[in-house]
């Protein structure tokens, strides 16, 4: 079994090379002074720690930006991240530390983009996770939407890509073709092939194969459900069997 990320944070192995604002956040919660990346003693940090700490930091900054009570954000975070009851206080401390740091959300977003710039699908996972947290109070508010768009821009997503991602979460008259990243001019056979490839590319098993943490798998599962729902709407509209 893969060791829980919270166990990793509590162990000596957290003395890993990871600078920047996320490294400072890790050091604050673990009680360790992290070695600067260029003076590394322990090598590159695990991907699950980078992913989860990035999600924590950006979610906390989003909470600070929109003024939502932190507990709401934390509960939403714990819906997609496996957090033992015994570690709830550590998650709360992480959120509060991230909210209090002088670094703006841009610094966290740039660091996450730098770490995963070759894997846009993983950056999309981060955005999906943030949308999940943003809609914890059953609505994505204007300030949250603007914040998420700014994060997407730092992640180098186009406006169209952002609208496609947002359409999976925002309650509006969404276009299933936008969710599927498909064109209405495509034939039924083309749409079928496109949909099957989309399912293969977004299947949670791919996250597992890439060595990503359970929270990334949960995000991918939710995303795949939205893709399947959009396909069902298109298939019904076109009477595709």
Question: What's a quick, concise take on this entry?
Answer:
By secondary structure, the chain is an all-alpha fold. The chain has one domain (5-238). It is built from 13 helices and no strands.
Give the C-alpha Rg: 19 Å
Strand fraction equals under 5%
Domain count, please report it.
Answer: 1
Q: How many beta-strand segments?
A: 0
Quaternary structure = single chain
Head-to-tail CA distance between termini: 41 Å
What's the rounded overall pLDDT mean?
A: 78
What class, by secondary structure content?
mainly alpha
Q: Helix and strand succession?
A: HHHHHHHHHHHHH
Q: What gross morphology would you assign?
A: elongated
- Low-pLDDT segments, ≥5 res: 10-17, 32-43
- Report the sheet with the most strands, covering strand number, pairing sense and barrel closure: none
How many H/I helical runs? 13
Percent range for helical residues?
55-70%
Which descriptors apply to this entry?
241 residues; mainly alpha; TerB family tellurite resistance protein; J_dom_sf; DnaJ_domain
What does this structure look like?
The protein is mostly helical. The protein is 66% helix and 0% strand. It has one domain (5-238). The protein has helices at 5-10, 20-30, 47-66, 70-80, 88-100, 105-116, 120-134, 142-154, 159-166, 176-180, 188-201, 204-209, 214-238. The chain is elongated, with a radius of gyration of 19 Å. The model is unreliable at 10-17 and 32-43 (pLDDT under 50). It comes from Microvirga splendida. Residues 175-241 form the J domain. This is TerB family tellurite resistance protein.
């Amino acid at each position: 079994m893969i060791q829980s990320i919270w166990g990793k944070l509590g162990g000596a192995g957290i003395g890993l090379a990871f600078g920047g604002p996320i490294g400072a956040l890790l050091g604050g919660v673990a009680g360790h002074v992290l070695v600067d990346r260029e003076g590394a003693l322990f090598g590159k940090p695990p991907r699950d720690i980078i992913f989860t700490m990035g999600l924590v930091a950006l979610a906390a900054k989003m909470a600070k930006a929109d003024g939502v009570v932190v507990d709401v954000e934390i509960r939403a975070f714990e819906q997609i991240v496996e957090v033992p009851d015994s570690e709830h206080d550590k998650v709360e401390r992480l959120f509060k530390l991230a909210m209090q740091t002088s670094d703006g959300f841009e610094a966290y977003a740039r660091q996450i983009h730098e770490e995963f710039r070759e894997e846009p699908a993983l950056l999309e996972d981060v955005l999906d996770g943030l949308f999940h947290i943003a809609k914890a109070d059953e609505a994505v508010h204007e300030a949250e939407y603007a914040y998420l768009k700014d994060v997407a821009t730092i992640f180098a997503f186009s406006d169209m890509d952002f609208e496609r991602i947002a359409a999976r979460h925002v309650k509006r008259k969404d276009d299933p073709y936008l969710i599927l990243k498909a064109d209405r001019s495509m034939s039924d056979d083309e749409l079928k092939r496109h949909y099957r490839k989309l399912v293969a590319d977004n299947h949670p098993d791919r996250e597992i194969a890439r060595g990503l943490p359970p929270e990334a798998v949960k995000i991918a599962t939710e995303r795949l459900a939205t893709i399947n729902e959009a396909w069902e709407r298109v298939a019904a509209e076109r009477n595709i069997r």
